[in-house]
Amino acid sequence: MADRLAQFAACTVWVRVILLALLGAAAGLGQAPFDLWPATVLALGALFVIYPSSLTGRQAVLHVWAFGFGYFAFSLRWIVEPFLVDIARHGWMAPFALVLMGAGGALFWALAAWLASRLSPGRIGVLGLLLVGAEVLRSLILTGFPWALLGHVWVTTGLAQVAAFGGPHLLTLLTVICGLAVAGLARAERILGLVTLGLVVALSFVMRPGTVPQPTDDLPVVRLVQPNAPQHQKWDPAYSDIFLNRLLQRSGAGDVPDLIVWPETSIAYLLNHIEDDLTLLSDAARGTPLVFGIQRRDAQARAYNSLVVMGPGGQVQSLYDKRHLVPFGEYIPGARLLGQIGASGLARNLGTGFTPGTTPGPVQIPGVGPAVPLICYEGIFAEEIAYGDTRPRLLLLITNDAWFGQAAGPHQHLAQARLRAIEQGLPMVRVANTGISAMIDARGRITASLPLGVDGAVDAALPPVSPATTYSLWGDMPIIVLLLSLTFVAYFNGKRDSD
């Protein structure tokens, strides 16, 4: 092992960067759709073995940044898909977007490496804990982007149930602990490494939720309707009525369910323009509550990305406006500020996009109960799901994953929806424009689904609610306190050993 590390250290800096970037990409295989969590654990273990061989703090930062770049560039490769919808106009931006996302995500890990090199040089335990802290920071700073967290690799395993106690960051801590255990196997702590990995594997088997129980007759039946409107056709006037007719036909067929759900922006018109025609939707729903996504404008001409709960007679019974918007996708950061300081021309050219909503929900669904509304991007923020003192009946996520293409993006978005259900102990109704639409129970199991690229509908019983989880009551605060405590302990132990 020492000889191999010496050979690695003897390589030129660019060779080391490339090798570590490839190792980081291998770590990304743990994310959906591959779900190869051992690849993530082994790659992290290799990073922790290599890290102490860095000759200087600057090298340590560069090594960890290169690993992070490979991880994020591979895991977030779907980011190129939106630029390929209109490839003639926007295709040239795709490689820049991928590089920027990879480099930007890696900066958080590089910050962890820099802090580790200042606090306790060469100690992999401190680096590991600071990497978890970096993932927490990445989830929160600059509106946050908690996509492809290291903890997401456990979604398809029994360890995913740990999210009910500590959310996604506790899962990330477990990932890092496993990586440190693998590093221990390659170093002097073989017994400790084997015991740690054995305990994690045992915990995974113990916490497996088992098979989905058979639904009972008293559970509401929800119809998930997926029109499969490709993004390049979705807003084309020649196709908008075709997709609307698909929704209407699928909604009005067969037995009458208790709730019908359509995806985000499923209607290609402003709500303001079709208020007199909502009876057409109500007739198709046959009196059943209908949830659909649509855009609207208020009296000040501000645009909103909205979710509507419609009752009999086309009456809008609840309205929710998306609160957490996508930077550069649904609004341009700073555009309004530019207008306020006098640069109105530049602000007008940039565009202000959508306005964030101010009402958190839940929305009331007649015959079903209160639902926590989530529109697309909002489903990735575990810490933002809130509903006050009254426990809701379900999480309700409508999305348009057509932007993500047919590869990794929709699968990773679905994986995060499964975690939200586990964290809150609530069933999740997830309806996507092009898929994957799914009914998810409170343990994160998929009970019914529609695959990618399919026009169809599926009726599924709404699973029961589980008791309130620790995470739903306390959020991220316990894991943040635990991380700070462990980091201080690791730091002072390292300082004592060096003295």
TrEMBL record:
- Keywords linked to the UniProt accession: Acyltransferase, Cell membrane, Lipoprotein, Membrane, Transferase, Transmembrane, Transmembrane helix
Q: Name one GO biological process term.
A: lipoprotein biosynthetic process
Q: Which Gene3D superfamilies match?
A: Carbon-nitrogen hydrolase
Instruction: Give its E.C. classification number.
Output: 2.3.1.269
Q: Which residues cross the membrane?
A: 7-30, 36-53, 60-80, 92-115, 127-150, 162-184, 191-207, 471-492
- Pathway, according to UniProt? Protein modification; lipoprotein biosynthesis (N-acyl transfer)
A GO-annotated cellular component? plasma membrane
Entries under PROSITE patterns matching the protein: CN_HYDROLASE
Single annotated GO MF: N-acyltransferase activity
Q: Which parts of the sequence belong to the CN hydrolase domain?
A: 225-464
Q: What is its main location?
A: membrane
Location(s), subcellular = Cell membrane
Q: How does it sit in the membrane?
A: Multi-pass membrane protein
Do you know which InterPro entries this protein is assigned to? Apolipo_AcylTrfase (IPR004563), C-N_Hydrolase (IPR003010), C-N_Hydrolase_sf (IPR036526), LNT_N (IPR045378)
- Report the top EC class in one word: transferase
Superkingdom of this entry's organism?
Answer: Bacteria
Family of the protein in this entry: Belongs to the CN hydrolase family. Apolipoprotein N-acyltransferase subfamily.
Q: What does this protein do?
A: Catalyzes the phospholipid dependent N-acylation of the N-terminal cysteine of apolipoprotein, the last step in lipoprotein maturation.
Q: What is this protein called?
A: Apolipoprotein N-acyltransferase
What is the organism field in this record? Yoonia maricola
Q: Which gene encodes it?
A: lnt
